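no rush on this but wanted to send it before i forget. theres a chain ive been looking at and ive put its sequence and its fold in token form underneath. i want to understand how the tokens follow from the sequence so walk me through it. thanks a lot i owe you, the record is right below:
>
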Amino acid sequence: AYGRSIMLSFHAVYSAGGIVGASLAWAGAHWDLALWVSYLPVVLVLLPAALVGSRWYVDGDERRAVPETTKGERTAGGLKWLLPLCLVMTVAYIGDSTVSNWSAKYLQDVLGSSEQLATVPYNVYMVTTLLGRAIGDVGVRRFGAVTVVRVGALVAAVGFAVVAGAPGAWAGMLGFTLLGLGLCVLVPQTFAAAGRRAAERGGPGASDAAVARLNVFNYVGFLIGSPLVGALGDAWSYRGAMLVPMVLVLVTLVYARSFAAEPDRYGVGHERARTADVGRGGNGL
């Protein structure tokens, strides 16, 4: 472990990629470009970059075979402690998939925006996600992961409420802005807590299994979120559908203590100065 919070900064780079993608979508809508015109340059740039970057995916000492004793340590104590984090991961991706799949349709069909303006909310969401993650590690070091997660959940809930009650497109974009600031901290801190707590319970190699299991629930959330909002929107109303992820994200408040560092690691009552993220022995997310 690195001995300090770093996971939010890593995820900020992912957000930067989302901003570029959303900007390309806006440009395609603005100039009425064919899809291949937007996709081809991205493939030509990113595919070689991914192949070159894969050389650094694994450290030299991680290539060694895992001892049998370490494999046994991974299952020590079971994984019941991981379930609250899995739930938070699911909820976070329900919120994220709601924004990524329905923000444009919501702005255009419900709030009456133009097609071009409807591409902006996701870009705004990703920009505020980037900003929140860029400074989020400072907040974790100063106030602790529990406080940061609680504040993020509350801000996200307010964002969904603003979107649901927005009288027009610009008010809706304010809501999506708040969603970016709120949701941005949940996923990185969930990965960080899982990797840290697994290492504390089962040794350095246990982080890999815990983070891999946790990562399944990002797909669960994404698969639930988009169809859920769409079904509720068609059967009821899209404004009402936005209230469902609002309620779900508030569930995070119940399980926020799961993000705290172990007292015996940093001292009783101490959780903020050395909030460690997944380092060596983790999967490097």
